[in-house]
Write a structure and sequence with these properties.
The protein is mainly alpha-helical. It is built from four helices and two strands. The chain has a domain at 27-98. It has helices at residues 47-60, 63-69, 72-78, 86-98; strands spanning 27-29, 41-43. The longest helix has 14 residues, at 47-60. The N and C termini lie far apart (33 Å).
Length: 103
């Protein structure tokens, strides 16, 4: 029997990138539905903290969360180094490719 792997739909808004993320700098406390492990405070001015916020929001967030926390230019600058589950990376990559943002 072949393993199918885990897959869950990721909410990616079509209008992402039409305006900067609502929250772009400073300390943020992610809501429990995103940071359900309890560690939810991160510094967006720290590269690793920003990357972790994006990873969590892109994996666990809904469209409104994406608009609040994900700035498309910042996302593209971190894309190659981000640690995302395969099902999340695949869906985001398809979205970014369809908009001509990555090859």
């Amino acid at each position: 029997m072949d393993a199918v792997g885990f897959w869950r739909h990721v909410d990616i808004p079509d209008d992402l990138g039409e305006r900067p993320a609502a929250i772009r700098t400073g300390l943020v406390k992610l809501p429990n539905h995103i940071a359900w492990s309890g560690q939810g405070e991160y510094d967006l001015d720290d590269p690793r903290g920003r990357e972790r916020v994006y990873e969590l929001v892109m994996t666990e967030g809904n469209e409104d969360d994406m608009r609040a926390y994900v700035d498309l230019d910042v996302l593209l600058s971190m894309w190659d180094t981000m640690r995302l589950a395969p099902h999340v990376r695949d869906q985001w990559a398809e979205h970014l490719r369809s908009h001509g943002l990555i090859a």
